[in-house]
Give the backbone structure.
Amino acid sequence: MDEFIYIDNSATSFPKPQEVHDFAYEFYRDKGVNPGRASFDLSQEVENMVLETRTVLMQFFNGDGKPERLVFTYNASDSLNMIIQGILQEGDHAVSTNMEHNSVLRPLYVLSQKSGIEVDYVPCDSSGYVDPDDIKAKIKNNTKLVIVNHASNVLGTVQPVGEIGKICRERSVTFAIDAAQTAGMIPINMERDSIDVVAFTGHKSLYAPAGIGGLYVRDGIEIESIRFGGTGVKSAVRTHLEEYPFRLECGTLNVSGVAGLYAGQKFIRSVGIDNIYEHEMKLLKMLIDGLRDVPGVILYCPDSLEARAPVLSLNVRGYTAGDVGTFLDVDFNIGVRTGLQCAPLVHETIGTVPEGTVRFSIGFFNTEEHIRKAIDAVKELAARK
């Protein structure tokens, strides 16, 4: 059997760096106790690792110097639910975009049905980008939240969050970004871009295991807790604690996941985030150039590599997206994602409902040989029609 070629890194990065596997496993094996909830040394040592991870991630996003406002969650979907449900109340208005993942669309829809939240969705242009002025035009007196996907998991387009953030700051509207696709790949600067809340997951470009994510909440922005329980401190208090991180955390932390985030950050710093992005975008250019002029192959939004993540969606005339995915898997041992990729409004925008697209999402451990084999496979399938 030929080597399995994995080009589905928007779903989860694979493989993970060996350093992450080693550190997360060894740390949990040797120090897998509850962090900070006991006076013995080992518990305090684990708490120190947790605090250092909060601090490193706060610095990574250029937050405002308060590591306790880096809150750990299960994943980006969990973080986005906390943001949306913890900020919006009955009578409030939110602005989002047609580029969103269901992790944003579904919580907004549920609140609109159950709590009377009003939501406006700003469309993208033909290249997959949102115009900040369109967002500005939707902001009203009762707008409490603007929430935007930093990079589309279907088209790879990176939105102009700095321009959007400036508009939101001028109007005193909380601005949150879904950084599931960008955290660890594209630098995020909360201070420069006037971002109030960043939601992220660990298992993609931060190279952590599944089951760990988080959000960073700028000082002055308050999110109401939607979960309540033990925090390990002030146990006699009947109400859930108001201070961060306990405000949004309850129960025992995923210590092995936090250890994975710690090791993933160390890996990113050792390689350099710019070098990671440059490598992945070089392979994206190679993929686009290799398929751009192939008869029967339709590429979506491939015109520019500026403000892009290393993602390419395509279709092959005469085949469903699912058929192409099966062909790549069975005949060429290549793993990609097909369908609507949990982002139905994007596919409505580009006209690929209901079948969706074939998505290639490149990671740091992909090689030029992987991309050559993917190009040849798609060419072979297209030539059959």
Summary: The mean pLDDT is 94. The domain at 18-270 is CATH 3.40.640.10 (Aspartate Aminotransferase; domain 2). The CA atoms of residues 16 and 254 lie 18 Å apart.
